[in-house]
Amino acid sequence: MTDNVYDYFSSLPGATNLFGSPRIDRELVANFFMIFSRAEYALKRAGLFLPEKRGGVDIQWDQFASSIAHSLSGIKDTRLTRAIDYLTQHPPRKQFVNAAGQLDWKERKRGNQSDAEFLIRSITTVRNNLFHGGKEVTWTMAERDHDLIENSLIVLAYCVNQNHGVWRAFAEIPPEVPTA
To answer: Please, what is the angle between helix 115-132 and helix 61-68, to 10°?
Structure first.
């Protein structure tokens, strides 16, 4: 028996291919997971949560979206506007179980969501798909997956900066410390 965690990792079939270049952009995925996780932490610290029935925490992503909605119009940064346009025009699909009991993908429908809510929920769907969705190791990371992650990261970073309470919590600035 060995104490090296990498020995266990390498004993998993196909595990060495999970992050093998060029299969996936490790840095992009790691940055997305860390920024998304930190943003979720910051939303909780900023009070944007409700208790769930079973004792968990329900992050109020829609309330966060409403708080930054005004800042999503009139943007001059072309990289940011391209990212917003991409996520709006090509939102991530959602995994579901079809009538035959098989896993399948469907387009996300906007419903009665505001632009900001649809955008933020697209980002949370990208996170859910990345964490819970398909993990085929035989193909390289699809261009669409890369674009969804990259654009989500750009928009999420911008949005965190637009809500002062979330930004402070993200940066771990105590409430009593003044900021400019």
So the answer is: 140
